[in-house]
Structures are given as structure tokens and as C-alpha cells.
Amino acid sequence: MLTRSRFLRATIGATLGTLCLLPFASQAQAPAWPTQPIKIILPTPAGIGPDVWLRRITPRLAEKLGQPVVVDNKPGGNGIIGARTVLTAAPDGYTLLFTSVAEILAVKYLNPTSSFGTENFVPVMAAIEPQMFFVTSPNLPAKNMKEFIAHAQSRKGEVTFGTSGVGSPFHLTAQSLSQTAHVNLTHVPYKGTLPAIQDVIGGRIDSGFGSVAGIGQFMQKGQLRPLAVLSHQRNKGFADVPTIYEAVPGITLPPDWFGFWAPSGTPQSVVATLNKALLAAMDSPDNANWLQTNGFVQIGSTPEKQTEMSRQGRDVYDPLAKAINLRPE
What is the pLDDT of residue 117? Predict the structure, then answer.
């Protein structure tokens, strides 16, 4: 027979049991990340290669994540304005940075008052790497890199190269070439790659750098002579052009890959979700074709690999930056 005291004990016990389970029920019903739109900050102007690529994959990324993904261009300050936007954002995965690792590595040289580096962000993925070409004017008496080096050695300081500016990856690449091949080249900085290339075509400077998308047509027409591709892989569209590592054994290049970073403190579970969704968004024939046509190599790394790539990049970047006395203009 159920006495009053037994009834009360049973009722209280059942109630306490239910209350104890409530926190677990609440956690189980919590919505999975993400629950709102994601913004990707790009500290460069719209319309350049990495911006075009990012906007091509964001619809698929949004589909994988189940939330809108917005690209927000914040150029200026050698990439610092965009990077700081992410650096100070909430560490919830809803604000990401997509930029060249070189932009972050250059901060302490080009803006010493901004004390941050790759270690101040959470790595998400090293995504793509541009295949740039080192080209010369057809008027130069050098049909390959060996002949170019010999020509430069015979004319100390007279052979010029143009870049998109002081401290650019191209500037550091030329410095590495100078050190490895024991040549003295003269730097001519421009405000952008296009005017530098136009002067190479016009014969006003001897050499320069450019992407397949930007200078491929000029190489095909013979207006520019490609001597090397700045990559570990040859470009399929110009398969007869050797890599810089084949043409100049022992050379090391500054890092120029593009990656995704999140604010410091972003949960690893969110990072893992982003990495998986990015890989899925990049896994398409359309993306592969675009990358090949426009001279990019897909990386698609883990966050751990990105951390190691950043560390290795710093080890190469710092000595080259010091060699050219890199500092604000």
C-alpha cells in the first residue's frame, strides 16, 4: 500500500531527477554552429585574383555551412586595416581574414606600431598559392635564367627589375635571387604590377613579375619572355618554363600563399567545421579549372599545417626583409 510518506518521497525523487536532467537536455538542444551569417575580410581591392577566387567559392561554402557568407573588402595600410578588423572581432568564427601570409609577415617592418603577426590569429586553412612568372623584355640578350644571371653578372647594378612596391614578395624574391646567384640587380618600385609590366614590355626596364591571368597573353605573343615560374610546380599552360628552383638551385622564396585566419580564442570545434566546409567548397571541377587557368595552386591545408607553413615562412622572410633594409617609406 502506498502511504502518504512513500508517495511524497517518490514525487520529490522524480522531480529532482527531472531537474538534474534539465541542463543536459538544454545542451543537447543547443543549435550547432553557425547560426548567423559569416563575414570574410579581404584586405585588398575587389577584382584581383584572390578576391575573384574567394567570391567563386563562397556560394558553395554558404551551402555547406547553411548560412550566408559575405566577402568584405577592406584595403589600405598594407593590409593592416583589414587584419585589425579581424584581430579585434569576437572569437566566435563569424569574422574571418583571408589574405596573403606575406601581408601579415610584413607588418612589423612596414608599420612597427602595429605589433601583430600570424601567431595572433587562429589558423583555419592555407588555401591557395599563386604561380607567378619572372619575365624579361625580349630585347634582353638572355633566353633563359642561366643567361640572365651571366648577363647581370657582367653588368653589375645595370640590370633592372620592377615590382609592385618596396617590401612586396617580388622585391624579396629578387633579393633572394641576387644572394643565391651572386648578382647585383637594381630595384624599380611601382604602384602596382601592371605599370611595371608595361615598362618591361616597352623595354624601359629589364625584368619583372606577373601572374598568368595578368601577363599570360603577353608571354604567348612574345612581348614578354618567361624565364621561371615561382613555384615548386611547373605551370601546365607554359610547361616548358622551368620552376625557379630548377633554374636557380638553392634559392629560397618568401611565402606568398593565401589563407584563412580567425580571431584569437576561436573554439577549435568552430575551426574544424570551417576547415571541413572550405575543403568541401573547394572540391569541384569548376574550381580546379579556374585555378589552373588563372595560375594558382590549391593547398587546402589543415590548421596545424598552416601554423607550420607560417613559421617556415617567417624563417625565410625575416632575413630577406633585413637584407633589403625593409622599413616604412
Answer: 93
Place of cell 599563386: 130
Question: In terms of Cα–Cα distance, which of 36, 80, 56, 46 is closest to 289?
Answer: 56
d(CA 210, CA 149): 19
State the CB neighbour count (10 A cutoff) for residue 126: 25
Least confident stretch, 122-131, 189-198, 242-251: 189-198
Question: What is the arithmetic mean of pLDDT over 74-80?
Answer: 85
CB of 111 within 8 A of CB of 326? no
For residue 67, how many other CB atoms are within 10 A of its CB?
16
Is 143:225 a contact under the CB 8 Å cutoff? yes
From CA 266, how far away is CA 219, in angstroms rounded? 45
Q: What are phi and psi of 186, to 5 degrees?
A: -105, 125
Asked if residue 10 has pLDDT above 60, the reply is: no
Q: What is the pLDDT of residue 30?
A: 54
